[in-house]
Amino acid sequence: MRGQPGTFLAGLARRLTKIEITGLENLEVLDQPGPAMIVVNHTTIVDVVVVIGTLHKYGFTVDGPCEKLKKSGCAHRRHLRPVGTSDMWNFQLAKQIVSGSGIIPTDQFNGSSAYRVALTALRNQECVLMYPEGDVQINAQASPRPWRRGTAALAKSVAMPIVPIAHHDSRKLGTGSAQRSILQALTRVVKRPTIHLMIGKPILASEIANLNEQETSTYLEEKLLNLWKKVSALT
């Protein structure tokens, strides 16, 4: 499983939960060449299983480069570069899975290095996945919270489509610290809970071309919040 977190999380998602998806057709924009970004709300560390596992199932993987790429081509629709906590490299099992993958490690207190790597990836025509809230300090409604600066800065630096993804309610799987959340998810004795996942229409570069960075952040936040309102109404 070294370098294959997408494969691992897709299998884990099948075991832990049932996922109902709306808007799969909106992922088609990612089949086009060129830079792109995915933005996702964040409520608990376990929602990464839901989102990354689902995207892998439909051909968008965070696994490392395919070994057979040079010989026979890649079977995936696209490889993604998610920005994820550097804490994953502190645990032996997690480190083994994520090392060599496309994940960009970030320190939640100082994301400057991750920002530079993500910007380079976009300029290299890659697709970056962002959790713009930057942490999982969940509120009572599990609604999207204010964004940190990096996502809007990237959106203004590179012209690209941005695909919003909202989910509700991953708290059914586990909450709290990373270790506690994962333990709760893995030791559930009740039937698998259903998590709703909604993929929104791509936000085009032309929609934010005349906005400054703060206006861009507000615009994108509202798009994700409105999408979350729709998906939360399904529960």
Give a description of the structure.
The protein is α/β, with parallel strands linked by helices. It has one domain (5-232): Glycerol-3-phosphate (1)-acyltransferase, CATH 3.40.1130. Helices cover 37% and strands 17% of the residues. It has helices at 5-16, 47-57, 69-72, 92-98, 112-123, 149-157, 178-186, 205-208, 213-232, and strands at residues 18-22, 36-40, 60-61, 78-85, 104-106, 127-130, 162-168, 194-199. Strands 1, 2, 3, 4, 5, 6, 7 and 8 form an eight-stranded mixed beta sheet that branches. Strand 3 (60-61), helix 3 and strand 4 (78-85) form a beta-alpha-beta unit. The radius of gyration is 17 Å and the shape is globular.
What is the class in the CATH system? Alpha Beta
Please tell me how large the radius of gyration is. 17 Å
Class derived from helix and strand content: alpha/beta
CATH architecture annotation name: 3-Layer(aba) Sandwich
- CATH fold label: Glycerol-3-phosphate (1)-acyltransferase
3D shape: globular
| Count of helical stretches | 9
- The parts where pLDDT drops under 50 for at least 5 residues are 176-187
Q: How would you characterize the largest beta sheet?
A: 8 strands, mixed
Q: Averaged pLDDT, please? A: 81
Estimate nothing, just give the exact number of structural domains: 1
- Strand/helix succession: HEEHEHEHEHEHEHEHH
Distance between the termini: 34 Å
Helix content: 25-40%
Fourth-level CATH superfamily: Glycerol-3-phosphate (1)-acyltransferase
Q: Could you tell me the strand content as a percent range?
A: 15-25%
User: How many β strands by DSSP?
Assistant: 8
